[in-house]
Design a protein that fits this description.
This protein is 48% helix and 23% strand. With 206 residues, it is an alpha+beta fold. A hairpin with a 2-residue loop joins β7 and β8 (179-184). α2 (31-57) packs antiparallel against α3 (62-93) and α4 (120-131) runs antiparallel to α5. The strands form two sheets. A five-stranded antiparallel β-sheet has the order 1-2-3-4-5, covered by helices on one side. A three-stranded antiparallel β-sheet has the order 6-7-8, with helices on one face. It has helices spanning 2-7, 31-57, 62-93, 120-131, 138-148, 190-200; strands spanning 11-12, 18-25, 97-104, 108-113, 151-156, 162-166, 171-176, 179-184. The protein is elongated, with a radius of gyration of 21 Å. The protein contains six helices and eight strands; from the N terminus they run αββααββααββββα.
Length: 206
């Protein structure tokens, strides 16, 4: 079925939105792991800086500064190791797959993470209905997709400050204040999605 193949790519639906699924292997694509480690690393660095400031306010002591730094260095290594272990435990729990549904229009792009129990074939069928290829009520179909979403993030193109392409990882980072969206798309439609986002944002990519 040509449409079934296409529905796993970027499809424009009857409501004018572009939709596509992306199924990422948590074992071979390090993007999610890198994000978790980056967040945890910045938290630890922030605590270290705070304690250094307190130490300086109490009266500068090179021995005290050294002790705090060494302690947080080993804490940093421990937390990074725990992040890696926790990540692979999570990957095993969800079957090693990260399934995301994306919706994109002139206003922005929505990233919707699907729970492990949602069947990929069901999502493809719902996208097909929205595109007008399969029969069904488009309103109920769209509602079903929204209910199925586990977590979601929307990037308003008006607020986007930078767009960073990472084609080797099939990733486009769409960055706005307090909103850092990660858009995944297959190589066949990567250039289309990247150019669409760039054409609708007020800033050029880094």
């Amino acid at each position: 079925d040509i449409f079934m193949d296409r529905s796993e790519r970027v499809v424009q639906c009857r409501d004018g939105k572009y939709r596509w699924l992306y199924e990422m292997s948590l074992y071979t694509n390090p993007t999610v792991l890198m994000l978790v480690m980056k967040i945890m690393g910045w938290v630890i660095v922030g605590i270290w800086v705070f304690l250094i400031i307190i130490e300086l306010c109490d009266g500068p002591s090179w021995e005290g500064l050294w002790d705090v730094t060494v302690t947080f260095f080993f804490m940093f290594l421990l937390m990074m190791a725990l992040c890696v272990v926790g990540y692979f435990v999570y990957a095993l729990m969800v079957g090693g797959k990260y399934v995301v549904l994306f919706e994109m229009d002139d206003n922005g792009v929505m990233h919707k993470q699907m729970p492990p129990g949602v069947k990929k074939a069901q999502l493809i069928g719902r996208i097909a209905a929205l595109a007008g290829v399969a029969s069904g009520n488009p309103g109920m179909t769209a509602q079903g997709i929204r209910v199925a979403a586990r977590t979601q993030m929307h990037s308003d193109f008006k607020t986007v400050r930078s767009v960073e392409p990472f084609p080797r990882r099939h990733l486009i980072k769409v960055n706005a204040p307090f909103n850092y969206n990660q858009v995944y798309v297959g190589k066949e439609d990567y250039d289309f999605v990247l150019n669409y986002i760039l054409d609708h944002t007020t800033r050029k990519n880094k």
